[in-house]
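Q: Please design a sequence for this.
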């Protein structure tokens, strides 16, 4: 099932994407799905960020080759950092390049996990019970600020630096999905989630030992090798097998 958050006119709703239509659902997608009976052509609605999370928890250096391209050996334990909820944007929205503050903004295509229920200290064997689904993400990073600061909050926390979408796929198997990032149609990242050093069950178990996870919270699972800079005017797309494609353009920040 593909769950989208969309707007049509002045209305914002959740719906289930079925072919070239979206069937609106009542309230939110957590718990029983109840259809309202309203249906809209997919081309007539605007897809929004599929969820507005209370928090975005991200994992650094979770692909060995990416850790090495960043100049370090793969860490033994997951490296946790966070991005503010205000960084989240949806498909088609602009990534705002803050030129006054940074001269290097990078793409980082990632698989994102959407939490489906409040949970804490979840054993790996029960992780599927707390997941609503999966979506595509771009962990946009001001690389020069990351290197200068020695920690990652500012570099990864700018408004618009967490594109998500196009929808939440509830039936994906995260164990071995192809993930590809393109810039202006040229492939820059190509990997499979089977290359994750710490897989989804291990990550949710690890993170939920630290903090309570709430419905709609996002876990970014890490980016593969091939990260690189974006320029104003670029179009960047993250495609994940069986989920879809998230596309955003880069624009100058006002």
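A: Design:
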């Amino acid at each position: 099932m593909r769950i989208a958050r969309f707007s049509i006119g002045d209305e914002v709703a959740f719906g289930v994407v079925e072919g070239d239509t979206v069937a609106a659902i009542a309230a939110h997608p957590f718990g029983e799905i109840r259809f309202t009976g309203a249906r809209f052509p997919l081309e007539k609605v605007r897809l929004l960020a599929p969820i507005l999370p209370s928090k975005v928890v991200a994992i650094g250096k979770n692909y060995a080759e990416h850790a090495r391209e960043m100049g370090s050996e793969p860490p033994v334990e997951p490296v946790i950092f966070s991005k503010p909820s205000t960084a989240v944007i949806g498909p088609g929205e602009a990534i705002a390049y803050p030129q006054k503050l940074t001269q290097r903004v990078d793409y980082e295509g990632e698989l994102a996990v959407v939490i489906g229920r409040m949970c804490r200290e979840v054993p790996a064997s029960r992780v599927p019970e707390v997941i609503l689904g999966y979506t595509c993400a771009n962990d946009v990073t001001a690389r020069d600020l990351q290197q200068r600061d020695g920690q990652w909050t500012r570099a990864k926390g700018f408004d618009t630096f967490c594109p998500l979408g196009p929808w939440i796929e509830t039936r994906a198997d995260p164990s071995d999905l192809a993930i590809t990032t393109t810039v202006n149609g040229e492939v820059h990242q190509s990997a499979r989630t089977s290359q994750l050093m710490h897989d989804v069950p291990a990550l949710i178990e690890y993170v939920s030992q630290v903090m309570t996870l709430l419905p709609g919270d996002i876990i970014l699972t890490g980016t593969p090798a091939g990260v690189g800079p974006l320029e104003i005017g670029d179009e960047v797309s993250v495609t994940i097998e069986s989920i879809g494609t998230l596309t955003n353009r880069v624009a100058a920040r006002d």
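Q: Thanks. Anything notable?
A: The chain has four helices and 20 strands. The CA atoms of residues 25 and 36 lie 5 Å apart.
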